[in-house]
Amino acid sequence: MPIPVPLDEYPVHQVPLFHSEVGSTDRNFYDRCIMHAYDRAGGVQIATGLGVYPNLGVIDAYVVVRRDGRQHAVRMSGALGPDRMRQEVGPYRIEVLEPLSSVRVVCDAPEQGITIDLTFTSPFAPLPEPRHVQRSDFKPMLDASRFVQIGDWTGTVTLDGERIPVTPRTWSGSRDRSWGIRPSGEAPPAGRPAQTAGFWWNWIPLHLGDQALMIIAQESADGHRFLTEAIRMYPIASGKAPEQLGWPEFDVRYTPGTRHPEGADVHLTDRRRNALTLRLDNHGFIALNVGAGYGGDPDWGHGQWKGEDYLDGAVYDQKDPVVAKRIPFGVIDHVATARLLGPDGALIAEGLGIFEHGTFGRHDPSGFTGWDSVAP
Questions:
Q1: Distance CA 63, CA 92 (A)
Q2: Which residues does residue 199 pair with via DSSP β-bridges, in sequence order?
Q3: How far lies 308's CA from each of 5, 182, 304, 311, in Å?
């Protein structure tokens, strides 16, 4: 029987249920985060997150640290309790220090080679992302709300006994919260196969000094854009409102014979109709389907029931033929240097961020005709 939890003391209900329940019976209902941290030299990168899957009864989390072409991963999973304010599973926890401003993430798993204690702060307000609805032909696959925040990290990372200090001077990053419906847990029967299989995705949070950019674009196999956003943000203290930067167009530079991006030029337009170019150059990556549990990860997936106290770790060499073969069929988070250029090519701002990109199957604008199609 559902029971009241501490959050039920507050007048924040949206459906006639306790906060230990959700307003959907869909098994794929989820509520989770992903956080990115990376040093400005590009040598160390972290992706981490925690998710709850109320209709599956599961809570899980992961940390992936990339250094020297190797992804070090630790995964935790357990039974979801009724108190949603407690974001903790195994040796992993998230503390909300100041809502919408600062969070702390801790993972103490030395036997798996990873210990982190990191605090995120931001001068920027969180940005609501567009409602994300994705269909496979007529079947709804994803319906989610999100917000993203770009900022800095402070703390320490210990990898295989080596302590790495993290400071805002040397590190940057972002965090993303999302909730709604998304494929989770063990895969159900697929039903009718999709008639036009294709995926093309870009998600790009960037910290450019006294401003931040957030760019999103997703297209179907025929190039139809059904999710898009390009926003420039300024620190809260500046009093400046966010600025839309038109309809982003992409020239992705792929390594010949692959779909692995080396970078991209993103073409934007400010409110005065000035043409802007965002130049991205990649410097190392984390493949989210290698240890982090995202789509196509054969070792572990979000929302899967692994038992009460599941904890494991693994190290993946990105150049290992088995791992390298898997990488192109998942979404990849690249650390990218970014330069925002004006109409005359003059530098407006520069910085660093995540260039998250994935494309598999058919995508007509890119010239990809099917699953085995690659860049010339």
A1: 9
A2: 360
A3: 21, 23, 12, 10
Residue 196 is predicted with a pLDDT of 65
pTM of the model: 0.96
pLDDT digits (tens, 9 = 90+) for 347-367: 999 999 999 999 999 999 999
Question: Closest Cα to residue 181, out of 149, 229, 146, 130?
Answer: 146
pLDDT of 135: 86
Q: What type of residue is 253?
A: R
Question: What are the chain's domains?
Answer: 30-181+196-366 (2.40.370.10)
Is 169's pLDDT higher than 80?
A: yes
Is 200 exposed, middle or buried (CB count within 10 Å of its CB: 0-12, 13-18, 19+)? buried
pLDDT tens sequence across 307-342: 999 999 999 999 999 999 999 999 999 999 999 999
* DSSP H helices in the chain: 321-326
Sorted by sequence, the CB contacts under 8 Å of residue 138 that are 6+ apart come out as none
Would you mind telling me the total number of residues written for the chain in this entry? 376
pLDDT greater than 90 at residue 187: no
Closest CA to 217 of 197, 200, 196, 242: 200
Could you read off the pLDDT of 249-285 as tens digits, one per residue? 999 999 999 999 999 999 999 999 999 999 999 999 9
Backbone angles phi and psi of 363, in degrees to 5: -150, 105
* SS3 (DSSP) at 326: helix
